[in-house]
Design goal:
By secondary structure, this protein is α+β, with helices and mostly antiparallel strands. Helix content is 30%, strand content 25%. The protein contains eight helices and eight strands; from the N terminus they run E-H-H-E-E-E-H-E-H-E-E-H-E-H-H-H. A hairpin with a 5-residue loop joins strand 2 and strand 3. Helix 4 packs antiparallel against helix 5. The longest helix has 16 residues. The radius of gyration is 19 Å and the shape is globular. About 5% of the residues have low confidence.
């Protein structure tokens, strides 16, 4: 249990090459960090959050990269965690997100960018989100046993997405990605099982805690039970 504390949220824009060159520094010096890449440009929007009393010594936005969208100064918000972290959204969108081993991210993201530019740029109207997750030891966690960097493709809900998302999924799988359990993907238990070293442990716990299959649904059967 920690006492209440406040976070400072910063948001600014930078060229995608600058963002990738400084990604490791941004990931390791901030409490939270993610960025959006806009497929129809070479710009990214970088977002960081840090405790007000524990901000990093290095501030990349101070080195002449402080223009936000439209050339405005970086957006800065300060508030308690329950106000600084959530974001209110009204726009509806579809999303696919895969969790990748962090060491595989550079090559995977390069291939994602290439395919979007060559195959999907006219269709991909929304941004691509990249974020970082620490390794953990939860049996079916997407970050189990490895430092994780994610790539998520977003698409306006009024536009087609399946061809675009399926192509991105094929890239993510080449680089050892694990799909986000709550977002679009086309994997079944047969493909998911090899991705999780503790799959059998989870299944044993599932049988023990729900022997009658009370919580079994068609969607869970597809995800967790091999035909």
């Amino acid at each position: 249990m920690q006492p209440r504390y406040e976070l400072r949220r910063r948001s600014w824009c930078a060229h995608v090459d600058w963002t990738l060159d400084h990604l490791a520094e941004l990931q390791h010096t901030n409490r939270n960090m993610d960025f959006y890449w806009y497929p129809r440009s070479e710009q990214t929007q970088i977002r960081t959050m840090n405790r007000r009393d524990r901000e990093p010594d290095i501030h990349p936005w101070a080195a002449g990269r402080e223009a936000g969208p439209g050339g405005h100064p970086p957006e800065i918000q300060v508030g308690p965690t329950h106000r600084a972290i959530p974001r209110h959204r009204e726009l509806r969108f579809e999303e696919i997100e895969y969790m990748l081993p962090s060491e595989a991210f550079p090559a995977c993201f390069a291939e994602v960018r290439r395919r979007i530019r060559e195959r999907h740029r006219r269709m991909a109207a929304w941004r691509v989100l990249v974020r970082t997750i620490a390794a953990d030891d939860i049996a079916l966690s997407n970050a189990y046993g490895r430092a994780t960097t994610t790539i998520a493709c977003l698409q306006n809900s009024s536009l087609p997405y399946e061809e675009y998302f399926r192509d991105m999924e094929s890239v993510f799988r080449q680089y050892g990605g694990r799909p986000h359990w709550g977002k679009k993907h086309w994997l079944t238990a047969r493909e998911l099982r090899p991705l999780y070293p503790r799959w059998n442990d989870f299944q044993a716990a599932r049988r023990r805690l729900d022997p009658d299959g009370v919580f079994r649904t068609p969607d869970l059967a597809r995800l967790l039970e091999e035909a």
